[in-house]
Specification:
By secondary structure, the protein is mainly beta. The chain contains one helix and seven strands; from the N terminus they run ββββαβββ. The strands form two sheets. Strands 2, 3, 5, 6 and 7 form a five-stranded antiparallel β-sheet that branches. The protein has a two-stranded antiparallel ribbon with strand order 1-4. The chain is globular and about 40 Å long.
């Protein structure tokens, strides 16, 4: 991902039931959270696409990062997706 050339970072995710919010978390390779943002609210089951503006993560240095999506259903139960890798090259 190159935040200088790409306007947005798109995040594709799927939920198996309705959720009251979905959060995106970005972590360093040392697992320190550097960004947390709500990317969706009150969504139904299925596949979804959200985005983070490049300006929000444009200050990241070149290198590897991890990201994860966490959803909270209508009952308040949390579920986390798999840990994914993001490579930043400017």
């Amino acid at each position: 991902f190159n935040p200088l050339k790409t306007g947005r970072l798109y995040i594709d995710f799927a939920v198996s039931q309705g959720c009251k919010n979905v959060k995106f978390g970005l972590y360093t390779v040392g697992y320190r959270r550097i960004l947390e943002r709500e990317i969706a609210g009150n969504i139904g089951a299925g596949n979804h696409r959200a985005f983070i503006e490049a300006a929000e993560i444009g200050s990241l240095s070149n290198g590897g990062y991890y990201w994860m999506v966490e959803a909270v259903n209508e009952k308040g139960e949390k579920a986390r997706g798999n840990l994914n890798t993001l490579i930043v090259l400017k």
